[in-house]
Amino acid sequence: MRYSDELPVDVEPYASRMKADPRERRDEAVNFSLLALHQILLRVGWIFKTESIVMPVFMSVVGGGPVLQACLVVLSRLGLSIPPVLFSRTLKIAHRKKWWYAGCSLAMAVPFGALAVLCATGWWQDNQGQPRWWMPAVYLVLYASFFALTGMNQLTAHALQGKLVRVERRGRLFTASVVVGSPIAIVAAMWWMPGWLASQEQGFAALFGCSAVLFALAGVATLFLREAPDDFRQSRSPLWRYFHHAWQVIEHDANARALAILTVLFSTSFMLFPHYVSAVTDGGAFDLRRMTLWVCMQNAGVAMFSFIAGPLADRYGNRAALHLTVAGATIAPLLVIAALLGFEQLRGNYSWLVFVPLGFTPVTIRFLTNYALEIASRHDHPKYISAIGLCMALPVVVGAPLVGLLAKWAGYLPVFTLGFVALLVALWQTFRIAEPRHGESSIMQEALK
Questions:
Q1: Contact between 149 and 108 (Cβ < 8 Å)
Q2: The domain boundary residue, chosen from 192, 213, 229
Q3: Is 357 helix (H, G, I), strand (E, B) or coil?
Q4: Residues 241 and 357 in one domain
Q5: Confidence at residue 168, expressed as pLDDT on a 0 to 100 scale
Q6: Which residues form a coiled coil (predicted)?
Q7: Which of 77, 147, 238, 353 is close enough to 396 for a disulfide, judged by CB 3.0 to 4.6 Å?
Q8: In the prediction, which pLDDT does 441 show?
Q9: Same domain membership, residue 165 and residue 93
């Protein structure tokens, strides 16, 4: 059994437009609309729990310092990488995958619903208004469960898109979610967040409650997908085999090895995520309503950079897009360094500038994934995606707590300086990977000829 058989992806619903009868076309149109609606609802819900802003701030509110803030990114990367691998066989043998898609989306609402209840009722505080000792632990458990469900949800989304949407329309599906979802998310945040965050406790209750409702609505939307049943069979495999085959990709494929090095270096950006707000605010109290502009500018950055990098990748290849996005990702830590060295405006009226280039991070992840798909044969796509996911997760698991300790003991300047240097090395590594689409070797190899 090949590991590539473990994940039900890249299954064509039909090879071409000519082979689809009118009913199939209607079904695909309905499915396209429902899948787009699902992504739009998730995108709008996500802005109220932005990982680089809202979630670390809430951890500080409930009594967690830099180390516990660093644990957030560890749990998110573990959830996005390990559970999908373990869930892959269950999903493959499911007759209709939409039930898992709906179930995961609905379940994603539960952790944030629980956080909303804790905030709204005040149960997380003692009689003196201080966070109860158990609240950081409860928060971490709910956070970990959310990202485990999110990883399973993303795997199911990939499988259903491969099954229900033709390959030439999958890019449009992503574009639709960005073009429609990002403006709605930004407008919703600008409209609601300032009023909500006027009160700290009720503000977080409203943020998390809104996310929970939108995630639940996204799950309901997928119940109406028109999906024919599958009839796959697969015997169980030892869990270690999944990870062994992912390692073999890096061991035997030079292109994958170069990409793995780039991915490990770029994972530095994840380790910095929980610390941007604390660095900009010097770890002190601030008006929570400032988060509104920060989350809006970061989401606007994601949309804007996607529109720039997407056509660049289509025309010149994913390597060219990675040159741009990794270079852009270096700007955020550089701005924090400038703020820490005395450029006070970056802590005041222009603090939003720090969060705009954070939009390069999810865009870079997309092109790292696309590059992995391009260097792999079709039946090996899942194996390569798994390998890249583990390359993103494992350095974060080891490094993020150390980054949190360094921030606690030495401050944020050495943290962001080291992160900036690592991203510069990652940028250098983008010139050492080949361009498979045009049959080009790495730019470094060409220069040495």
A1: yes
A2: 229
A3: helix
A4: yes
A5: 58
A6: none
A7: 77
A8: 55
A9: yes
